[in-house]
Amino acid sequence: MDLPLNIVVGNVISLIAGIFIILSMWVNDEKKAYKYQFLNAFILMISSVFFLSWTGVTTMAIAASRNAMVYKDKLTINWTIFFIIISVVLGVLVNTMGIIGLLPIIAIVQITLCNYYLKSIKAIKTGFIVNSAIYVVYFLAIFDISSAVIESITAIIGLISLTMLVFPDLKKS
To answer: What's the total number of domains in the chain?
Structure first.
């Protein structure tokens, strides 16, 4: 079975992005988590070009910008509203995948709200896990298998890490 070169290249780039999403879920420092989230979104923006996913390119560019603002503590309510509006408007305009193309839009709105409202690492990780679940479905639909696997692993790592935060006595077992 010969896969088109763009799918192979996109998967390799997505695999690199996956390293950063896993790191974001593993760390227990909010700033580091958002730094890794920025790097993940930026690299996924590039891989989305190879999958011809213009919704992905758009939403990942917005996500990278938003994550940079969160990292620098500049995400205000006005910026949050701006990112949500621009995500929905641009995402719908470039969507060529129907319902599947709406998943990145839903994911970016969900995580943007989390970025603004959630401040504790436990809540942030929970938001990341929900976001990963949405993206697993999307990545499978566009044949970005490496991202689907990475997001699944990320969600599992996030659940383990969150469990250790919620039940610190489990570490001693």
So the answer is: 1
